[in-house]
Amino acid sequence: MSFRDNLLYLRDSRNMTQEHLAMLLGVTRQAVSKWEAGASTPDMDKLVRLCEIFEVDLDELIRGDVTVRTVDQTLAIPDDAPVSDVTGYDPHMRSRALFIAGAAAFLVFGVGSVAMLARGGVGLLLLGGGWGPVLNPYPFYFLLTGAAGALACLAVAHIRHVAFCRAHPFVSNFYTDDDHERACRLSGFSRIAACALACFGAVIAVIQSVPLQHVSGGLSSLVVCCAAAALVAMYGRLMARRIDIEAYNERAEFLHGGCDVRVRFALLVAAVTVVAALGSLFFVLSAWSQILIWGAIAIAVGWAFLTVFRES
């Protein structure tokens, strides 16, 4: 018998679908279909993995006749067996959602801290002698901290997601209707919680600024609450999006191609821009020169964040 006949027999004897076998092998369903149609053959790693799954020898799988083997019915998948998460998709997507939500919180913290210091009386411009006014570096340390934290979270999320997509380009939809309902409730709750956190921060800021005359403390509370609101809102949105496995399957096979190159380029540009901005703080440059540099920071980091969020 040929390899395709042996593969068809072994898969049918285990009552295994092409989707299930594709998940176990880390390939697409179309790849399994091509093997069974004789249009292509798997590489050596996949052949070895097939031997492990079906408990046969390599020679027997390729050139032998597996139909003479006694079929162990206890290894067959029951017809009413629910689809399970054999790839670890759900914990991976939960972790990814947390990293990207953390990046959003870092961005809000960085931008909000600069606005807080400016509103609290810390000047953004200093006298620079013959160079004229220069930017005060102190407020922008917070912006750099936020940008660096956001880039680190985005880089970790993207690298891990690309590795997962390469290992598992196809995932069967194992989510139930209850899972979809819980995801919708979580998304709605996260939006409500984010609004509540932002309003709570505004109330605390007013209380600390007006009756207590502690403007900086009130603004600090507002920035922290807004960053927490961004984290909660983004996490809830990504947790709801993880349920759409069909969208994941469509994106997974392209993620390690041109999309991966675009995202890595965006992260690299943003990282180089942040390093250049950090270096600019130690040189006496005119205010306009530094404004251009910090404008480039905002564009690069924002572009990196949107690219990772959209493409991944």
UniProtKB/TrEMBL annotation:
InterPro entries per UniProt: Cro/C1-type_HTH, Lambda_DNA-bd_dom_sf
Superkingdom classification of source: Bacteria
Keywords recorded for this protein, A-Z: DNA-binding, Membrane, Transmembrane, Transmembrane helix
Cross-referenced PROSITE patterns: HTH_CROC1
SMART domains: HTH_XRE (SM00530)
Transmembrane annotation, as ranges: 97-118, 138-157, 192-212, 218-240, 261-285, 291-309
HTH cro/C1-type domain mapped to chain residues: 7-61
MF terms in GO: DNA binding
Protein name: XRE family transcriptional regulator
Organism: Collinsella intestinalis
